[in-house]
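User: I'm preparing a small set of examples for a lab meeting where we compare how different chains pack in three dimensions. I only have the primary sequence for this one, and I'd like the structure in token form so I can line it up with the others. Please keep the answer compact; I'll paste it straight into my notes.
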Amino acid sequence: MNKKLITLISTTLLMFPVLAFAFGVPLPNYPISISDAIDRIFLFIWPLFIAFAIIMFIVAGFIYLTAHGEPGKVKTAGQAVMWGAVGVGVGVLAFSIPTIVSVMLGA
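Assistant: Understood. Below is the structure token output for the 107-residue chain.
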């Protein structure tokens, strides 16, 4: 990427807190811990991940159904299912890592 694009993206991301104060978004009266923030982010991302995984498997099934026995398309559909399963496994592992770490640390 070029430097202008990276600068634009980082400036935009850094402006979000300023915009929150500008619009008068009320801040909570209690301190939010890092684990609470991560949990809230995961609660937002998890349904998106599930929806993406379901769409991935539907697309793979559609590729398989429209292959008409053509070996190249059948192989592509099989690889899509395999990589979809790998993605689901990695996603589940990624979402369970904070729980595993907190249990191991006794938090």
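A couple of notes for your slides: The helical segments are 3-22, 34-65, 71-105. The mean pLDDT is 81.

User: Perfect, thanks.
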